[in-house]
Amino acid sequence: MPDQFTFGSIIRSISGLCCVGLGRQLYAHVIKSEHRSHLISQNALIAMYTKFDRILDAWNVFSGIARKDITSWGSMIAAFSKLDSARIVFNDIESPDLASWNAIIAGVARAGCMHEADDFINQMAFDADIVEWKSLLAYCKTHGNVDVGKRAAENILKIDPTNSATLVLLCNIYASSGKWEEVAM
After folding, report:
1. pLDDT tens digits for range 102-121
2. What span, in angstroms and rounded, lies between the C-alpha atoms of 146 and 113?
3. Is the pTM higher than 0.85?
4. Whether 102 contacts 114, CB under 8 Å
5. What is the CA 162 to chain-centroid distance, rounded?
6. Domain-by-domain residue ranges, the chain?
7. DSSP assignment of 146-166, as one string?
8. Can you tell which superkingdom this protein's organism belongs to (predicted)?
9. Residue among 58, 55, 119, 63 nearest 84 (CA)
10. Distance between CA atoms of 44 and 73, rounded to whole angstroms?
11. In 3D, which of 130, 103, 105, 128 has the Cα closest to residue 115?
12. How far is Cα 2 from Cα 16, in angstroms, rounded to an integer?
């Protein structure tokens, strides 16, 4: 009989194959087994459903978890970020740690809400590190947000003044926006 690690691995593999029907069948086996309440299987299911944009199914699995861990919360934040509802889940976390903050920042930035992601960074209970700023800068490039991208780059360079990749990415943001005079500086 497969254990929770086997179920978790198979579910992740199915996610990679984009076979939601097969994933649902496997979920039925998980429910019938003694592993229905194992966190590894449940977190893998949440991630799979999120990947397939089946947010309600992900929520149903999440709701059934008695003791949610950081992976559970992060997966649901990622799921709800697809619906612009990440803040709802994030606000339910009693003491968000750095991984939770990173998940919400990346989720809202991925959804194109650069100013909201920037607001989250500024609301953190501790100083933002380079990870949050790099995530925000990368999504600013994706979504063409020059103003927030410039602020993210400035904060990265305060932390690591020799980070040349930041300067290259900022120049790419400027170039994509037609701000050639900024690229030349």
Report:
1. 878 887 787 777 888 888 88
2. 13
3. no
4. no
5. 27
6. 1-65
7. HHHHHHHHHHHHHH-TT-HHH
8. Eukaryota
9. 55
10. 12
11. 105
12. 20
Count CB atoms within 10 A of the CB of residue 163. 16
Transcribe the chain into DSSP letters. Answer: ---HHHHHHHHHHHHHHT-HHHHHHHHHHHHHSTTTT-HHHHHHHHHHHHHTT-HHHHHHHHHT-SS--HHHHHHHHHHHHTTT-HHHHHHT-SS--HHHHHHHHHHHHHTT-HHHHHHHHHH-SS---HHHHHHHHHHHHHHT-HHHHHHHHHHHHHH-TT-HHHHHHHHHHHHHTT-HHHHH-
Residues constituting the chain: 185
Alpha-carbon distance of 6 to 106, in angstroms, equals 29
Residue type, 2: P
